[in-house]
Specification:
Blueprint (H helix, E strand, L loop, with lengths): L11 H18 L6 H7 L6 E5 L5 H9 L3 E5 L3 H10 L7 E2 L12 E5 L10 H10 L8 E9 L15 H10 L3 E9 L8 E8 L10
The structure holds S-adenosylmethionine.
Length: 214
C-alpha cells in the first residue's frame, strides 16, 4: 500500500537566512556604521527604548550598544541569524530574540526596520507596517526608521523572495496608519552590490519633536 506523503516546502526566505547565517554575520558587519549617524540624530537619548525588527545578526544594535545605548532589543524570525548574531556580538547576546511573545506593544521610542521590507509581498505591506508600528510608543518623540530596497537588479532571480516597494507606497501605507514622513533619502548599497539602492525614511506622528527634513 502506498502511503500519502505530505512534503512541506520551507519558505525560501527563511531557508536562505537559516542556511547562510554565519556567512551573513560577517558580510553584514562589513556594511560599517550604516544607519548609525541617522539613529543618533533622531534618537540622541541613550536610554531610549529601541527595537530593531528583523535585526538579522544585530549589527546596528551592536554599534548602538558600543556607543552607550542601554535599552536595546532585536527581533529576527530566523533562529539561526540570532545564534550567529550572539556569537558575532557577545556584548548584545541577551538583547537578541527570535520570538516576540512577551514584548509589550506601544512601548518603544524608536523602531528600526532595516533591509526587511523587501521580503514582504505587496499585499501584506500594510499589515506588516501596522504590526511594526504597534510596538511604537504613541508619543511625539517616537520614531520609525525604515531602510528598504528601491533598486535591486536581478531581484527576481534571488534564492530568497524579494519584492520592491516604492517610496510612495510605503509613505501612503504609513500615512493610513497615522504616521508622517519626516525625511527621506536614498543611499547606495553599503556593501557595493551593483545597482542596489535603498530608501531611508523617518516617520512619526505629526506632533513629533523631530524637525521635518528640508
Ligand atoms: C537582509 S537581512 C537584514 C538584517 C538587518 N536588519 C541588517 O540591516 O543587517 C533581512 C532580515 O529580515 C528578516 N526577515 C525576513 N522576513 C521577515 C519578517 N516577515 N519579519 C521580520 N523579519 C524578517 C530575515 O530573517 C533577515 O534576518
Amino acid at each position: 500500500m502506498t502511503k500519502n506523503v505530505v512534503v512541506v516546502e520551507s519558505d525560501p526566505t527563511s531557508h536562505y537566512y537559516s542556511h547562510n547565517a554565519a556567512r551573513l554575520a560577517e558580510e553584514y558587519d562589513r556594511a560599517g556604521d550604516g544607519l548609525l549617524p541617522l539613529i543618533v540624530k533622531i534618537c540622541p537619548d541613550e536610554s531610549a527604548r529601541i527595537l530593531d525588527y528583523g535585526c538579522g545578526t544585530g549589527r546596528d544594535l551592536a554599534r548602538l550598544h558600543d556607543r552607550g545605548y542601554t535599552n536595546l532589543m532585536g527581533y529576527d524570525p530566523s533562529p539561526e541569524m540570532i545564534v550567529a548574531g550572539r556569537a558575532k556580538y557577545p556584548q548584545i547576546e541577551n538583547y537578541l530574540h527570535h520570538e516576540l511573545t512577551n514584548i509589550a506593544t506601544a512601548f518603544f521610542d524608536l523602531m528600526i526596520c532595516s533591509a526587511v521590507l523587501q521580503h514582504i509581498e505587496a499585499g501584506k505591506l500594510s499589515a506588516f507596517l501596522k504590526k511594526l508600528t504597534s510596538y511604537l510608543r504613541p508619543s511625539a518623540s517616537s520614531h520609525l526608521l525604515l531602510s528598504y530596497a528601491i533598486q535591486w537588479p536581478g531581484y527576481e532571480k534571488e534564492p530568497r523572495r524579494v519584492f520592491l516597494h516604492s517610496p510612495a507606497e510605503v509613505r501612503l501605507a504609513l500615512h493610513e496608519l497615522g504616521l508622517s514622513e519626516f525625511s527621506f533619502t536614498t543611499s547606495q548599497d553599503s556593501l557595493s552590490r551593483a545597482g542596489r539602492e535603498w530608501g531611508v525614511g523617518v516617520y512619526g506622528t505629526p506632533a513629533s519633536s523631530l524637525t521635518a527634513a528640508p
